[in-house]
Design brief:
41% helix, 95 residues, 3 helices, alpha+beta
Amino acid sequence: MSALWIAHVDVTDEEKYGEYIKVASVVIPEHGGEFIARGGRFVQFEGRERKRNVVARFPSVEAAEAAYADPRYQEAVKLAKAGSEREVMVVETTD
């Protein structure tokens, strides 16, 4: 089953977060991830609103976990955490 990587983000430092995006834009596709939503228009119905929302589809939860564990991505996570407040999760789809 495929999986969705979902990130809800408030960017606090554009420069640091921009450096994170450069790495994520390479590593996520290398692990089979395809961005299907990336910072576009959204409507918040419930819960905490974050200004940036990203969704990537992966072939499996394991592929998404491999992307997250990739050493290059882990280095970039340090920049993301320094330049944003965020929640990131992976959820298996029903297909």
